[in-house]
Design a protein that fits this description.
By secondary structure, the chain is mainly α. 76% of the residues lie in helices and 3% in strands. Keywords: Membrane, Transmembrane, Transmembrane helix.
Amino acid sequence: MVRDLAAATRAELGKVVTLRAVWLISGAVVGLHVLLGLQNLDAETEAVREITADGMIERFPGIVRPAREALVEYLAASSFQMCLFLPCVAAVVAGQEFRAGQLGTSLLAVPRRGLLAGAKVLAVGGFLLFVSIVIAAISTAFVYLSIKDWNPGLPVSAEAWTAQVKFLAYAVLSGLTTFAITMIARSTLIGILVTVALTVLTMSQILAVFTPALDALVPLSAGRNLILVPDESLRLSAGPGHAMVVLVTWPLLATAVAATALCRRDAR
């Protein structure tokens, strides 16, 4: 069983890395991240130069925070903002199976549909992890350039590693949620639209204002609750433990539904 799953996962990963659209979107996300990093570099470097003797920084006007805490959060947040676009990669991978009619061929190679669904999840999760690590590395490089004259070891400190691991967890889990939703809908567009709708719920703060408990159940809100640190300018709707449970539950439930649908539907 394990050997079959490993072989199927390698085959699915091979299909993912041969999709031109996947590389184009991934490249666009990475390129955008580099562009934003370059735009923010001068401002962040200037803020670091103004760190006070007691270790306080003012990255935003009127908001003064401990420099170490604020810069570690900036490191994770700069990676986190790319998660608005990463799910598109997962949606394209899932939708390609149905747009190109590849599912029937896949089932000929792996007749057990549950095994095939598991292999697809592992392959997509592995690719998302790779792209996310590239994004995290770029964030680390830009933060290092900003603070190298103040504390060059901060980007690779224990706090920084913890923050980046949280980002990686969210990036992969949220991407797998979009992948499963797209598999259920059998449409790249629907998968992206559902993801956008969930994102709007967080960005608009509609649920956070009236029902914070519901807001905490939205994937992007859970990512925010996991990665960011609350302060006077940012209120979170739940703690990191609750956020991690939400982030794991979404792809588990969505993947279970997708696997069930794959087992019951035809292979068109």
